[in-house]
Every structure is written in C-alpha cells, then in structure tokens.
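User: Hey, quick favor. My workstation is busy. Could you predict this chain's structure for me?
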Amino acid sequence: MSEEKTESREKYVRPTWDEYFMEVSRTIAKRATCDRGRSGCVIARDNQILVTGYVGSPEGLPHCDDAGHLLKKMLHDDGTVTQHCVRTVHAEQNAICQAAKRGISIDGGTVYCKMTPCRTCAMLIINCGINRVVCEKHYHDETDSMKMFAQAGIKIEHLEDSVQMYTNM
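Assistant: No problem, here it is.
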C-alpha cells in the first residue's frame, strides 16, 4: 500500500473500557423479553466481564413478549402515577443471580446498565459490594437510588444526561 493512502486513513481509536462494556450491555439487551425495557447489564472487574443479565421473566414463567405485560400502578411521592411491568426480573437482578448461581464474586466490581438502577436493584448492588455503576441514561424515578448510592459511597456515572422514557408510563 502506498504511503499516501496510509496517511489519508483515519487512525482507529479503541473504545474506552466503559464504552466497551456499555456496548456489550447493549448487545446483551437484545435477549430481553420485555419490549418496554429491553435492557442488559454487565458486571465487570479488572477489565474482565464477570457476569451478564437481561430483562426477562423468571425461569419457566411466561415472558411479556409472549403473554403481554403485567402492569401495576405506582403512586410516587409527588403524586404522579406511573405503570410498571412486574412480570420481569431486571437486568441487574438477573446478573446478580447469575453470579450467585455460578459462585462468582462480584465484590469490587462495576455495573454497566441502561439506566439508573431502581431502588430495589440499588439495594442489591450495594449489598453485593459493587463500588461503581455506569449508566447510559437516567431513570425517571431515581431519587432514592441516587441517595442510597451516595450514602454507600458508590460512584455512579451517566454517559448521557437524558431520561430513559417508556411507552405506557
């Protein structure tokens, strides 16, 4: 190849570790079985993937994509009411379950996920010894999670400053 052609090509830039793991979590999300919240999760430590998880129903139970959503209304502190699908297990919860099933310690790891973990996921993440959470976007009801992460000393970062929106909220 001539020197002229080599110089005109753009230099390849490798993704950062955060970009890499977030892209893997987006691929994992393609296995999710709830179209309202197709999300995936990667838990990594020392630049190595430990476990993954995606949104889906408990083993042996019907999936949203097959049986429809199981929506429940939630009343928030500010008086707003939203609907949440309770048929599925969150991606973060499934990743933690995979670690437990396989005897993999996730202590000191980093969680990569689509949005700020919900309150329940935040409590599990804290108790698992995770020390960092990287989210693609914010969650519309993240106040409790953000407070708990701050109190527990867990660093949380958002790659985008936008809120993940759902249909049928």
